[in-house]
Amino acid sequence: MQLYLNDTSPFARLVLVTALEAGIEDIRLRWVDPWKSPDSLIAINPFSTVPTLELESGQAIFESLFICQHLLGLCQKNVAIKLCSVDDLPRLSVGKTLMEMSFRSVVLQRFVAQAESCELVVRSKAGIGRALAGIDGVFHAPPEDEASGFSMADLCLALALSYMRFRMPELIKEKATDNTLAKLEFWEKMPSFEWTSPQALKAKPETLVELRE
User: Is 114 left (phi over 0), alpha (psi -120 to 50) or beta?
Assistant: First the structure.
Protein backbone atom coordinates (compact mmCIF):
# COMPACT_ATOMS: atom_id res chain seq x y z
CA MET A 1 0.00 0.00 0.00
CA GLN A 2 1.02 3.59 -0.60
CA LEU A 3 -0.22 6.61 1.36
CA TYR A 4 -0.15 9.96 -0.41
CA LEU A 5 0.11 12.80 2.09
CA ASN A 6 1.73 16.08 3.03
CA ASP A 7 3.28 17.14 6.30
CA THR A 8 0.60 19.51 7.61
CA SER A 9 -2.74 17.87 6.76
CA PRO A 10 -4.68 16.99 9.93
CA PHE A 11 -6.55 14.36 7.93
CA ALA A 12 -3.32 12.66 6.86
CA ARG A 13 -2.13 12.80 10.46
CA LEU A 14 -5.32 11.03 11.56
CA VAL A 15 -4.45 8.18 9.20
CA LEU A 16 -0.81 8.07 10.29
CA VAL A 17 -1.67 7.91 13.99
CA THR A 18 -4.23 5.18 13.31
CA ALA A 19 -1.68 3.14 11.34
CA LEU A 20 0.92 3.55 14.08
CA GLU A 21 -1.48 2.62 16.87
CA ALA A 22 -2.64 -0.39 14.85
CA GLY A 23 0.93 -1.58 14.34
CA ILE A 24 0.69 -1.53 10.54
CA GLU A 25 4.04 -1.28 8.80
CA ASP A 26 3.60 -2.16 5.11
CA ILE A 27 2.73 1.34 3.91
CA ARG A 28 5.01 3.44 1.72
CA LEU A 29 4.68 7.18 2.27
CA ARG A 30 4.40 9.30 -0.87
CA TRP A 31 4.89 12.99 -0.09
CA VAL A 32 3.05 15.30 -2.48
CA ASP A 33 1.70 18.84 -2.73
CA PRO A 34 -1.99 18.25 -3.53
CA TRP A 35 -2.46 21.91 -4.47
CA LYS A 36 -0.19 21.34 -7.47
CA SER A 37 -2.33 18.40 -8.63
CA PRO A 38 0.57 16.00 -9.31
CA ASP A 39 -0.07 13.40 -12.00
CA SER A 40 0.76 10.52 -9.65
CA LEU A 41 -2.02 11.58 -7.28
CA ILE A 42 -4.60 12.48 -9.91
CA ALA A 43 -4.12 9.06 -11.51
CA ILE A 44 -5.73 7.44 -8.46
CA ASN A 45 -7.72 10.31 -6.95
CA PRO A 46 -9.45 12.74 -9.38
CA PHE A 47 -9.97 15.22 -6.53
CA SER A 48 -6.22 15.53 -5.80
CA THR A 49 -6.69 15.43 -2.03
CA VAL A 50 -4.68 13.92 0.78
CA PRO A 51 -4.65 11.51 2.41
CA THR A 52 -5.13 8.97 -0.36
CA LEU A 53 -4.39 5.30 0.24
CA GLU A 54 -3.52 3.27 -2.85
CA LEU A 55 -4.28 -0.41 -2.31
CA GLU A 56 -2.39 -3.35 -3.77
CA SER A 57 -5.29 -3.80 -6.19
CA GLY A 58 -4.64 -0.35 -7.66
CA GLN A 59 -7.87 1.02 -6.20
CA ALA A 60 -7.73 3.96 -3.81
CA ILE A 61 -9.51 5.24 -0.71
CA PHE A 62 -9.46 8.98 -0.20
CA GLU A 63 -11.45 9.98 2.85
CA SER A 64 -9.55 9.83 6.12
CA LEU A 65 -12.16 8.01 8.23
CA PHE A 66 -12.70 5.42 5.51
CA ILE A 67 -8.94 4.87 5.28
CA CYS A 68 -8.78 4.45 9.07
CA GLN A 69 -11.63 1.95 8.96
CA HIS A 70 -9.79 -0.02 6.28
CA LEU A 71 -6.53 -0.05 8.27
CA LEU A 72 -8.22 -1.15 11.48
CA GLY A 73 -9.97 -3.89 9.52
CA LEU A 74 -6.57 -5.28 8.55
CA CYS A 75 -5.51 -5.78 12.17
CA GLN A 76 -5.30 -9.33 13.43
CA LYS A 77 -4.78 -8.34 17.06
CA ASN A 78 -6.31 -6.08 19.67
CA VAL A 79 -5.18 -2.48 19.33
CA ALA A 80 -5.60 0.62 21.47
CA ILE A 81 -7.73 2.51 18.96
CA LYS A 82 -11.31 1.37 18.34
CA LEU A 83 -13.93 2.12 15.73
CA CYS A 84 -16.77 4.25 17.05
CA SER A 85 -19.84 2.78 18.64
CA VAL A 86 -23.22 4.35 17.97
CA ASP A 87 -22.90 6.25 21.25
CA ASP A 88 -19.57 7.73 20.09
CA LEU A 89 -20.96 9.21 16.87
CA PRO A 90 -22.02 12.59 18.34
CA ARG A 91 -18.48 13.14 19.65
CA LEU A 92 -16.99 11.97 16.37
CA SER A 93 -19.19 14.52 14.58
CA VAL A 94 -17.78 17.30 16.76
CA GLY A 95 -14.17 16.25 16.27
CA LYS A 96 -14.31 15.64 12.52
CA THR A 97 -16.28 18.82 11.83
CA LEU A 98 -13.94 20.87 14.02
CA MET A 99 -11.02 19.50 12.01
CA GLU A 100 -12.74 20.32 8.70
CA MET A 101 -13.81 23.82 9.73
CA SER A 102 -10.35 24.66 11.05
CA PHE A 103 -8.72 23.37 7.88
CA ARG A 104 -11.18 25.30 5.71
CA SER A 105 -10.46 28.54 7.56
CA VAL A 106 -6.72 28.11 7.17
CA VAL A 107 -6.99 27.28 3.46
CA LEU A 108 -9.31 30.18 2.69
CA GLN A 109 -6.96 32.60 4.41
CA ARG A 110 -4.16 31.24 2.25
CA PHE A 111 -5.93 31.57 -1.08
CA VAL A 112 -8.62 34.25 -0.69
CA ALA A 113 -7.87 37.98 -0.64
CA GLN A 114 -9.19 39.75 2.49
CA ALA A 115 -10.18 36.37 3.88
CA GLU A 116 -10.97 37.70 7.35
CA SER A 117 -14.11 39.33 5.95
CA CYS A 118 -15.04 36.30 3.82
CA GLU A 119 -18.38 34.95 4.96
CA LEU A 120 -17.12 31.35 4.95
CA VAL A 121 -14.21 32.27 7.24
CA VAL A 122 -16.43 34.32 9.53
CA ARG A 123 -18.98 31.52 9.85
CA SER A 124 -16.30 28.87 10.29
CA LYS A 125 -14.57 30.76 13.09
CA ALA A 126 -17.87 31.47 14.81
CA GLY A 127 -18.75 27.76 14.73
CA ILE A 128 -15.28 26.81 15.94
CA GLY A 129 -15.58 29.23 18.83
CA ARG A 130 -18.93 27.81 19.89
CA ALA A 131 -17.58 24.26 19.64
CA LEU A 132 -14.51 25.06 21.72
CA ALA A 133 -16.62 26.70 24.41
CA GLY A 134 -18.51 23.45 24.98
CA ILE A 135 -15.96 20.83 24.02
CA ASP A 136 -14.62 20.01 27.47
CA GLY A 137 -17.61 17.85 28.30
CA VAL A 138 -17.02 15.51 25.35
CA PHE A 139 -13.22 15.63 25.08
CA HIS A 140 -11.38 13.02 27.15
CA ALA A 141 -7.74 12.71 28.09
CA PRO A 142 -6.05 9.53 26.82
CA PRO A 143 -6.56 6.57 29.17
CA GLU A 144 -3.82 5.96 31.71
CA ASP A 145 -4.26 2.24 31.13
CA GLU A 146 -3.37 1.56 27.48
CA ALA A 147 -5.31 -1.71 27.56
CA SER A 148 -8.60 0.21 27.91
CA GLY A 149 -8.03 1.91 24.56
CA PHE A 150 -9.72 4.92 23.01
CA SER A 151 -12.15 5.52 20.17
CA MET A 152 -11.82 7.26 16.83
CA ALA A 153 -13.97 10.04 18.34
CA ASP A 154 -11.33 10.67 21.00
CA LEU A 155 -8.60 10.70 18.37
CA CYS A 156 -10.45 13.08 16.02
CA LEU A 157 -11.09 15.53 18.82
CA ALA A 158 -7.47 15.45 19.97
CA LEU A 159 -6.02 15.86 16.48
CA ALA A 160 -8.46 18.66 15.61
CA LEU A 161 -7.37 20.58 18.70
CA SER A 162 -3.72 19.84 17.99
CA TYR A 163 -4.14 21.21 14.44
CA MET A 164 -5.74 24.34 15.85
CA ARG A 165 -2.87 24.80 18.27
CA PHE A 166 -0.53 24.60 15.26
CA ARG A 167 -2.47 26.75 12.80
CA MET A 168 -4.86 28.87 14.91
CA PRO A 169 -3.08 29.31 18.26
CA GLU A 170 -4.75 32.59 19.24
CA LEU A 171 -8.27 31.27 18.67
CA ILE A 172 -7.77 28.07 20.67
CA LYS A 173 -6.06 30.02 23.45
CA GLU A 174 -8.97 32.42 23.62
CA LYS A 175 -11.84 29.93 23.36
CA ALA A 176 -10.67 26.62 24.86
CA THR A 177 -10.76 26.05 28.60
CA ASP A 178 -7.63 25.38 30.63
CA ASN A 179 -8.95 21.88 31.29
CA THR A 180 -9.30 21.18 27.56
CA LEU A 181 -5.76 22.38 26.92
CA ALA A 182 -4.45 20.26 29.80
CA LYS A 183 -6.08 17.14 28.31
CA LEU A 184 -4.56 18.01 24.93
CA GLU A 185 -1.10 18.13 26.52
CA PHE A 186 -1.47 14.46 27.52
CA TRP A 187 -2.42 13.48 23.96
CA GLU A 188 0.50 15.36 22.46
CA LYS A 189 2.93 13.45 24.68
CA MET A 190 1.87 10.12 23.17
CA PRO A 191 4.56 8.65 20.87
CA SER A 192 2.20 8.44 17.89
CA PHE A 193 1.46 12.15 18.25
CA GLU A 194 5.11 13.11 18.64
CA TRP A 195 6.13 11.03 15.60
CA THR A 196 3.46 12.69 13.43
CA SER A 197 3.76 16.33 14.44
CA PRO A 198 4.22 18.71 11.48
CA GLN A 199 7.73 19.42 12.72
CA ALA A 200 8.63 15.71 12.81
CA LEU A 201 7.10 15.08 9.38
CA LYS A 202 9.33 17.67 7.72
CA ALA A 203 11.91 14.87 7.45
CA LYS A 204 9.49 13.07 5.06
CA PRO A 205 10.26 9.46 5.97
CA GLU A 206 9.50 6.84 3.32
CA THR A 207 7.97 4.24 5.63
CA LEU A 208 6.18 3.97 8.97
CA VAL A 209 9.24 2.17 10.35
CA GLU A 210 11.38 5.21 9.50
CA LEU A 211 8.73 7.45 11.03
CA ARG A 212 9.18 5.79 14.41
CA GLU A 213 12.98 5.97 14.39
Answer: left
